[in-house]
Write a structure and sequence with these properties.
14-stranded mixed β-sheet, 580 residues, GMP Synthetase, Chain A, domain 3, alpha/beta
Length: 580
């Protein structure tokens, strides 16, 4: 049998306090193998204040609120169904991340080390991410739910030299050696949890705002997944935009149903409640567990896709639950049905719903509240106007430009359109990323540099700006349908059909080749629905925009993206019905 040394594989674990399921207090000793060490305190230095490293927020919280709970992770249930939690304060999280960082540094993971991170969401993920940021290492985060072939392709292209993962991930790297050929250091997360410690103080390295902080992969919902390069300055800008836009205050409690959002919480001073759900299959979530977590922890803030919140709303309505502790709910990942906002408003008497708009490459871009949607834009969406995604955030600028399928190599080629005209959405701002990882052609296709040297990102989305400066989303460029009589856009057409109570969702597809496609609408009916094609034709005839659509299909379960289980794979539906 090969030794761990020969495999260049470390298995490191953190021994936790046997009482209350919490981490050890500062005076308690933690063990790594046979070595017993005592963790010392720390102080926030002047260099920490001048540092752009996103990890600096954690020691700051550890100084100002050392005994405030940073993370609660579920560890079981009591007989009455209550969730048992393992809690970790900001002080404990800081000491643990220092220890993790020291252990990773001892394995050769240092500044600039590209480190593939394959760890389950929760406390371990938060500890390890902050440890890597402190070291100046570069976490590479890929959705494993995207499918094995795509996942291995992303690993191969990103060329990590180290990986930190659970045992099955380490085994995967051994089975598919070619994809993991660049990996020389493997750190396995032991059964007892997060990587652990060598017990020395570890302050965040001094990072420039333009220094690469992480590579986060897109979900690949309308194309091949791409690694997005995030700098420390961009993370810092995201924190400020989210905090200031939604007025998030320290001491709030967050239930993030997208794992990456938990990493912002130490910077925002929020307690993170780890949800009981499979992040690779969010649509399979048990809404009863989410509602119990909200009640039990008095959650004030939560982020999730429309699919998740549709399930939660239905459960609350069936069982007479309300969610009075919630101050805000952020819904994103796909256009949000106005009716879902109305239902959630009724369930959250002290809260407000918001639908931020953005992408992995630039988030957030704009936002709109449920109050504005229900009072103003809902009716327009149902008659074919598209989905209003609100006004750009402070510091973010947006333009509508003439859409072209090719790269735009010069600012002189940009043709800005007037209000009300549909074109491609172009954005810039402090959180807008500048490059894709090792994909120069994709970068050239998505980025444009203006005469002042500012990088603008092409969203790949079609929309327009109204007279009030709000952005309206009409659909993805690659999913538009070009017919002999004109171009149709998915979100405009689908809004007309989705208003019918027996339609769960619909999808516009184009059969054949552009510009001579046949427009068709695929419909997912509600359980027990008696809806017929004749009924769909009546809906189409009710609006001039859809009057020419005569081809309809029914489909039981739409293919959706892996990250939110909300974005419809319309191109997959197109291929399916072209073959039928």
């Amino acid at each position: 049998m090969q030794t761990a040394k020969r495999l260049n594989l470390a298995v490191i674990t953190l021994r936790r306090s046997p009482t209350a399921g919490t981490f050890s207090r500062p005076h308690e000793r933690l063990a790594l193998g046979r070595q017993i060490v005592t963790l010392k305190g720390f102080s926030m230095t002047r260099s920490m204040e001048q540092n752009a490293n996103v990890a600096r927020f954690l020691p700051r919280m550890a100084v100002t609120s050392p005994d405030t709970v940073a993370v609660r992770a579920p560890k079981g249930h009591l007989k009455d169904g209550s969730i048992c939690y393992r809690s970790c304060t900001f002080g404990e999280l800081e000491r643990a991340s220092q220890a993790v960082g020291a252990a990773l540094a001892a394995r050769g993971i240092t500044r600039g080390t590209r480190t593939l991170l394959l760890v389950r969401p929760g406390l371990d993920l938060i500890q390890i991410c902050f440890a890597l940021f402190k070291l100046g290492a570069i976490p590479i985060v890929i959705d494993p739910g995207m499918g094995l072939k795509s996942f291995l392709s992303c690993v191969r292209r990103s060329e990590p030299t180290a990986m930190v993962g659970i045992p099955v991930a380490i085994l995967l790297s051994r089975v598919f050696r070619q994809a993991f050929a660049s990996v020389s250091t493997r750190v396995c997360i032991g059964r007892t949890g997060a990587p652990a410690l060598l017990g020395r103080s570890l302050e965040p390295v001094l990072s420039d705002p333009d220094e690469l902080a992480a590579v986060l992969f897109t979900s690949g919902s309308t194309g091949a997944p791409k690694g997005v390069c995030y700098t420390h300055g961009m993370f810092d800008a995201q924190v400020r935009l989210i905090r200031d836009t939604y007025q998030i205050a320290p001491g709030e409690v967050d239930l993030p149903m997208l794992p990456i959002f938990a990493l912002f919480n130490p910077a925002l001073g929020m307690t993170t409640i780890v949800p009981e759900m499979n992040p690779s299959r969010p649509a399979t979530v048990d809404p009863a567990r989410i509602v119990r977590a909200i009640h039990q922890n008095q959650v004030t803030n939560s982020f999730g896709s429309p699919v998740l919140w549709t399930r939660i709303a239905a459960y609350c309505e069936r069982n007479g639950h309300r969610l009075p502790s919630l101050r805000r709910v952020l819904l994103a990942g796909a256009p949000v049905p106005p009716d879902l906002l109305r239902r959630l408003q009724a369930l959250t008497p002290n809260g407000e719903m918001h639908t931020p708009y953005g992408a992995t490459e630039c988030l957030p871009v704009s936002t709109i509240s449920a109050r504005e949607v229900l009072a103003d834009t809902w009716g327009k969406t149902e008659t074919g106007a598209g989905t209003c995604v609100g006004r750009p955030l402070g510091g973010v600028s947006a333009k509508i430009i003439e859409s072209v399928d090719e790269s735009i190599s010069s600012w002189a080629q940009v043709n800005e359109l007037s209000d009300g005209t549909i074109g491609e959405i172009l954005v810039t701002g402090p959180s807008v990323t500048r490059t894709y990882d090792r994909l120069p052609e994709a970068t050239a296709r998505a980025k444009i540099i203006d005469p002042q040297g500012t990088v603008w990102h092409r969203m790949g989305d079609l929309g327009y700006r109204d007279a009030e400066g709000r952005l309206w989303f009409c659909g993805r460029m690659v999913e538009r349908v070009e017919t002999e009589s004109g171009t149709l856009f998915t979100d405009q057409v689908e809004g007309i059909f989705n208003r019918h109570p027996q339609i769960v969702r619909s999808a516009l597809i184009g059969l054949g080749q552009a510009p001579n496609q046949t427009a068709a609408v695929v419909v997912e009916r509600a359980p027990g629905s008696s809806l017929t094609v004749a009924d769909l034709r009546k809906i189409a005839a009710s609006q001039p925009l859809t009057a020419g659509i005569e081809t309809f299909f029914f489909h039981k379960k739409f293919p959706v993206d892996v990250r939110h289980n909300a974005k419809i794979h319309r191109l997959t539906l197109k291929r399916l019905f072209e073959r039928s």
